[in-house]
Amino acid sequence: MAKQKLVVIGNGMAGARAVEEVLARGGAEMFDIVMFGDEPHGNYNRIMLSNILSGQQTYDEIFLNPLPWYAENGITLHAGERVTEIDRFAKVVTSAGGVKEHYDVLLISTGSRAFMPPIPGLHTAGGTLKPGVFGFRTIEDTNGMVAAAAPGVKAVVIGGGLLGLEAARGLLNHGCDSTVVHLGGHLMDAQLDATGGAMLRTAMERMGVRVLLSKSTTEVLGEDKVTGLTFKDGETIDCDLLVVAAGIRPNAEIGTRAGLTVERAIVVDNHMRSVDDPSVYVVGECAQHRGMVYGLVAPLWDQAKVFADHVTGRNRDAAYHGSKLATKLKVMGVELASMGITMPKEERDEVIQFMEPKKGTYKKLIVREGRLVGGILMGDISKAAFLMQAFDRDSPLPDERLSLLFDLGAPPQKVTLDEMPAEAQVCNCNGVSKAAIGTAVAGGCKTVTAVMNATRAGKGCGSCKGLVGDVVAWFLGGAVEEDPSVHWYVPCIPMKKQELVAAIREQELKSVSAVFRALAGGVEDPASKIPLASLLNTIWPGEYVDERDARFINDRVHGNIQKDGTFSVVPEMAGGLCTPEELVRIANAAVKYKVPLVKLTGGQRIDLVGVKKEDLPGIWRDIGMPAGHAWGKSYRTCKSCIGIDYCRFGLGDSMGLATRIEKTFRALSDSPGKMKLGTTGCPRNCSEALIKDVGMVAVGDGKWEIYIGGAGGAHVRKGDLLCTVEGEDEVMKVIGRFMQFYREDAKYKERTYTWVPRIGLERIRAVVVDDSEGWCERFDREIEAAIAAYRDPWLDRDAPKTANQFASLIPAEG
Amino acid sequence: MPGDTLTREHVLGNVDEIPVGEGRNFEVAGRTVAVFRNHAGEVFASQADCPHLGGPLADGMLGGSTIMCPLHDRMFDLRTGSVLVGECGITVYPIRKAEDGTLLLSLDG
């Protein structure tokens, strides 16, 4: 088939980007491409003109597509040719210089121009701008300003928006005496509220720019060239160089002349096509989509992609749905981020703000229904990446509002993915870099699961899984495919946890091999055995058929396997308490079995590390204490502070409660993730109860606060206050219900610090405190059944469960 | 030749030394060999240590003919020794179960 001809009017950032997107979709095979540009250059980054003005960059540095690029890509460029006519019936465009081109498909990307307000004296009698007056839009404008700027020159900028402030800064660098004249009541009124505008003004004045607000210019003075301005209030000001940065106007006249619908700009449909003519597309600042005309680059990139998908037939359903406006910028050295609305608009809007004028820090967020609808960050924009993402995706915000504005003792703000160097490690456990993930994606991995399998990223402690997902999405440009299996409880059975539980209950499957036979076609997946065993033990306490091979080695021999294949021995020490006699027995056993390392654990116990498998039964027997359950995904331990007996601050018996908790809940030998608990006798939190899966804080009068979902490991999170209860019995009841709800509901390996925010504190409180679902009676029953079924696993020392349970090596018979 | 193979076979002991679905290490002619017994009654033998970081494969998770190392989840096919998840494969040894349950292993095969 013969190639079609694509003619592009406008060689600015939108037009050239749209052509790049077409080329990226194999468009060179489908189209002969012809471009018309008003300016005699290739395409440059207009946003960077302020850096040219201030002398920070040179022209070479801001060209995006220099002239040779067009030839290299087989594009005919008519530079310096302004298109004046479009004959839509003949499908021919004509330039002022008489160049005619036929088109099959036309793209209008004429952008916009500086708006010149109707101020008397702005133009000469001939209609051109008075000498000394400039817009700030093109290389020519910038060249003119640079030529006119010199030390002592009185420069005035009309317009206190971003562009006007950039112009004032640039002119200041040239030694000019700079003044900004703004019609509005505060600077940058599109992006800032009055408070932010006032702080920006202070910062600008400190740098030497004069700012005049609420000033309406009534006349530009001077005969042959500009000499001054007069204002509505009668004041005047001297002026040698005037920059008008009072906004932009779309170059839509070409559309009007061609008979296309033009309101504020040329009206397009969701495919970025003129509503009047299916062979005419429009992108960029000259396009009006759903009533919006955008003047920022991000929407323009999105529009260019939709256009290219549609015109090349790559995706005829490609649709643009509008953009949410968020920008991050630097004005006169002041860092700024702005998104959405600047002032609350509805009664339900919640405003969160912080101000530290001395440092020039201002943060304001507008939250509606738990989602961000507007925000201003000035001075400190470290949270900008997170907030802009939350704004763009309309994602729910954390309940802890303070954490939206500051990093509360959390790890320092991670660099954005764009900034992250290729060699940066994403998964520390398995040493997977950003680049390695990129290689996997380039190699065809289209899902997070596929990348994780290919690179092992996220398969260590799992704390980086979220980041791995983000990096994969970044490499795929958002085109990440969801792998349905991420929602399955185990990879070999296509069911979510609740569906699987229902099937297991209905078919009364009580062993792992029965589940494989009934639900997985008889195929035994080794990686699924452990999560299934955990689930079955939770569903059928006391009735579960315990096939030992379905347990992880730790749960077969009741110790934590070490890197050399030896095990650790941690006896139970509820609340960190033990007797001198127990200490002596532990010490003697450690000597007798030549334990290479004795270490206090984070959970206030003694860890004998490096014990050979065959020595486990003997050492347990010698120690004569129950197992501390320090190896599995189960209830682990409850640490405590010293409580009321000796501490002069104690408000509650934290040691007593910890002991009671340990002796009860040690029976929870299976759960989705480990559960580490803590009790503290006063809010000083000496036992770190606030960062435990479940933490109890004594607040006096027999009352305890119960915190859930805390973490102090690879992930640090303060627990959420579930409720405050009176007396230890109530504590036991509520936390039992909470742990059972977690055991039944959470995904395998999902710790409470992920599960609690996922389910939501309100929901958990409703279920376990208010019994909204009527499940509490069942929770209580399940917990009691587990307690009744409890047996110290270290008793296996006298009655091994399997042949050679503790043998490291069996000699062959011959 | 069957006769030749037989001469090189070592008697490990009875299959009941290994619980169903698990593995155990045997000491054979100065070497340590991991031996596995799955739910279908098949037996397999392989090198004892994971080629990744030396994890004890006999303490791993067995499913069908797949073994997963307990330390870092590397996975291997015990029929062929080929790697399923990880960097390289493992050595496997021919093993068979006599009618009376005696396990016979050939180290040189």
TrEMBL record, chain A:
Pfam family, one: Rubredoxin_C
Keyword presence, Nucleotide-binding: no
A GO MF term: 4 iron, 4 sulfur cluster binding
Keywords linked to the UniProt accession: 2Fe-2S, 4Fe-4S, FAD, Flavoprotein, Heme, Iron, Iron-sulfur, Metal-binding, Nitrate assimilation, Oxidoreductase
BFD-like [2Fe-2S]-binding domain mapped to chain residues: 426-472
Entry's family note: Belongs to the nitrite and sulfite reductase 4Fe-4S domain family.
Record-given protein name: Nitrite reductase large subunit NirB
Organism: Roseomonas acroporae
Record gene name: nirB
Automatic annotation (TrEMBL), chain B:
Alphabetically ordered keywords of this record: 2Fe-2S, Iron, Iron-sulfur, Metal-binding
Molecular functions per Gene Ontology: 2 iron, 2 sulfur cluster binding; metal ion binding
Domain Rieske: 10-104
A Pfam family matched in the record: Rieske
Keyword Metal-binding included in the entry's annotation: yes
Transmembrane feature ranges: none
Superkingdom of origin organism: Bacteria
Protein name stated in the entry: Rieske (2Fe-2S) protein
Lineage: Bacteria, Pseudomonadati, Pseudomonadota, Alphaproteobacteria, Acetobacterales
